[in-house]
Amino acid sequence: MHFNTRFLLTLLATVSQFGSSSAAGWTNADSNWMNFINGNWKLNQINIPGTHDSGTYNIRDDYGWIGNEIKVAYARTQDLSIMKQLESGIRYLDIRLGDDDDDDVIIVHGDLYGESLANGKNDKGENLTLKQVLNDCRNFLNTHVTETIIIHLKNESNCKGIPFFDAHQIGIDSGNCLNSDRQKIVNNLTSNKNYYFTEKRMPKLNEVRGKIVVATRETDYNGMYLTFPGNRSKEIRLCSSNPSFKCAFDNNYRCCIQDAYELAENEKWEAIIRIINEQNKSYNQGDSRIENTLDINFMSTTVGTLKLVANSLKKN
Ligand SMILES: *[C@@H]1O[C@H](CO)[C@@H](O)[C@H](O)[C@H]1NC(C)=O
Ligand SMILES: *[C@@H]1O[C@H](CO)[C@@H](O)[C@H](O)[C@H]1NC(C)=O
Ligand SMILES: *[C@@H]1O[C@H](CO)[C@@H](O)[C@H](O)[C@H]1NC(C)=O
Ligand SMILES: *[C@@H]1O[C@H](CO)[C@@H](O)[C@H](O)[C@H]1NC(C)=O
Ligand SMILES: *[C@@H]1O[C@H](CO)[C@@H](O)[C@H](O)[C@H]1NC(C)=O
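That is the input. Now the predicted structure with 2-acetamido-2-deoxy-beta-D-glucopyranose docked in place:
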């Protein structure tokens, strides 16, 4: 499927009922697909596949309690390492940040779970650090120079280690984290302009081949600032129903977002397709706003997870 001048950022949760990743079967063309894309196109004009909670492939249950098995089945949204995701064509990584006790910035999925369960692990069983993820990306780009990788950085917990979801649930202030260690570490790691694009504008592909584009939901990390809200309910933010909704940079970009994840499978597909159809219609009608439109079409859902839990229990 190839959409010319189409603006889709598609997040695939490999462990959803809609897809299952296969650990093999991709080709060189998958690893270098951006080689075939016109470098004068801006990133929002390219249909870019991404993964949801990209760093969770090694999330494990360290405690052996059955409740934890269930949490892990929810939290492990990927079963490929970052490198394998990149080799199979993924170019957008959803990176959720937390801190560990040694002042490392680590990958967590702490939205639903306590942090001890939430840490992604590397192959040695250590906490997966942001540094390691970025190193993987850079190693990939060293040998795939036509490609670019968008990393989306989002706080999953505040600087006191309290997962936001829990903080909201129990009604505590998530705290003032300005000038925190995490902020300094993140900005330091992404400071080398030879490897990272952190400007607040939409680049053309040619400007960022071989580089990591930092996109962030936080105001104090360097990078392209995105402001779209998360929403677990059935909300679909079609451009036509929210014509003035801006989502990025200096308020010049409008977003069409589909992020409804508590839907039945058929409803979810309808939601995904509505975004595609709406943009197709705008494109066919020559709508000039489309150049400054960013489509974000999340494909993940939590529906059907019971089956997953059962599989996970079987596997272990
Ligand atoms: C991983 O991070 C948690 C804090 O989030 C920490 O308690 C734990 O000691 C860390 N594990 C390792 C192996 O560093
Ligand atoms: C995200 O974390 C950074 C570093 O701790 C902090 O400076 C920033 O305020 C946080 N953002 C939000 C929205 O909590
Ligand atoms: C980032 O941290 C490293 C190691 O601590 C340090 O040598 C370097 O100067 C820092 N870079 C910037 C831009 O702060
Ligand atoms: C989420 O979507 C629901 C339904 O459209 C809406 O009522 C609610 O305000 C939204 N929440 C946020 C944080 O946008
Ligand atoms: C987009 O519109 C064109 C022209 O009407 C049509 O041929 C094509 O099938 C549409 N694509 C999708 C994905 O609906």
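The radius of gyration is 19 Å.
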